[in-house]
Amino acid sequence: MSSHSRVTRTGLRLALGLLAVPTAAASAQSVFDRLELHGSLNAAYGRADTLGVFGVPQQGTSDYRVFTLQGRFSLSDRDQIVAQVFNRRLGTSPLAGAISDVTMQWAYWQHKEGDLTVKVGRNPLPRGLSNEVRYIGTVLPFFRPPLELTLEAFDAIDGAVASYRQDLGAGITLEQYAFFGGSEARSLVTTSTGAGVRMARTENMFGGQSYLTFPVAGLKLGAYGARYGYVQSTGRGYRTNYVLSAESSIDRLKVQSEHSRITGPGPSNDSRMTYVQGTVRVVDHFSVAGQHSRTDRRLYFANPSLDRIIPEVRTNGVSGIVALPANTALKLEHHWRKGWSFDTPTSPVASQTATSVTLSPKRDARYFLVSLATSF
């Protein structure tokens, strides 16, 4: 083959490539027009005084953050594909080893038909006031919502979610959700060898949530209910969960409270969780928040007459929030915790016989977090 022929063919390929650039650019432009990207970072330094709590140790840790990146691609005016990945670090928590560095939190198809929305795939689970934004620090007065209620569970559901919004008149709005599928749960348990991680899967999960929003005082009332098959290494069976929610905003004050109960014959469980939270905007760029949360749990024994409900944990927290430019917030928070739920083994049972049970003394711990949250 002559050098001229090679040059000609090379020039032809180059010309065709240059001609293809505008076409490719136009195609890429149309794709990017339909793509939205959103992200958030919630990074903190924490330190505890006596016992580790939620991965915050006595020596302190900066290995504490959540980063989320969400992409939304419009297939049509009514259809979207949504995916969200996140990177989460939990300091020295025993749960840290059970969570991958990068996790696909959501991946679903969404279709809207008027006031009806249907999602299929790995969806946000409509459960309580803050479940969908539990990792977005810029919309929360603390680093996270109270774990006594959210738990390390139920942040997503593999299946289908349908929602409907309706104006009832007089400024009252009704939101209704229905869902079916499966989810995941992680928890710390005290074993004979120390603190362990219990992984569980819920399947055949079905339920719903309803909210009524009123025009007075920004009042919002909600109720959630679900039943699901609970599968773990120590047993399986069906459980039920309900959550009652209330929220109100008056001028510079916002108050919210939720109560949840999880019951089930297998594995035996009866847990009751409650929190109350209030935020006051002192000036335009500074707010303070206070929070009280608690968990009461039933202990089960071979002799059912010894079964009892104990105040497993009580926690109080305060937070100062500074609003910075570019949708960024700086928070300094302090928490007091009392009970038997920490990162180290603290069994509530000191001793037992066939006819009596002696409880261990409650433990106390304090910890603080300073965090920076930003989102786009």
Helix proportion range:
under 10%
Q: What is the count of distinct domains?
A: 1
Please name the fourth-level CATH homologous superfamily: Porin
Report the average pLDDT across residues: 90
Number of strands: 19
Question: CATH topology, what is it called?
Answer: Porin
- Tally of separate helices: 2
Rg is 25 Å
What's the SSE blueprint?
Blueprint: H1 3-33, E1 35-48, E2 61-74, E3 79-90, E4 102-113, E5 116-124, H2 147-150, E6 152-153, E7 156-169, E8 172-191, E9 194-213, E10 220-232, E11 235-250, E12 253-265, E13 268-283, E14 286-299, E15 308-324, E16 328-339, E17 349-352, E18 357-359, E19 363-375
Antiparallel strand pairs: 1-2, 1-19, 2-3, 3-4, 4-5, 5-7, 6-8, 7-8, 8-9, 9-10, 10-11, 11-12, 12-13, 13-14, 14-15, 15-16, 16-19, 17-18
What features would you describe in this structure?
Keywords: Signal. It comes from Roseisolibacter agri. The protein is mainly beta and about 375 residues long. The chain has one domain: Porin (Beta Barrel). It is about 10% helix and about 65% strand. The strands form 2 sheets. It has a 16-stranded antiparallel barrel with strand order 1-2-3-4-5-7-8-9-10-11-12-13-14-15-16-19. The protein has a two-stranded antiparallel ribbon with strand order 17-18. The longest helix has about 30 residues, at about 5-35. The chain is globular and about 70 Å long. The relative contact order is 0.13.
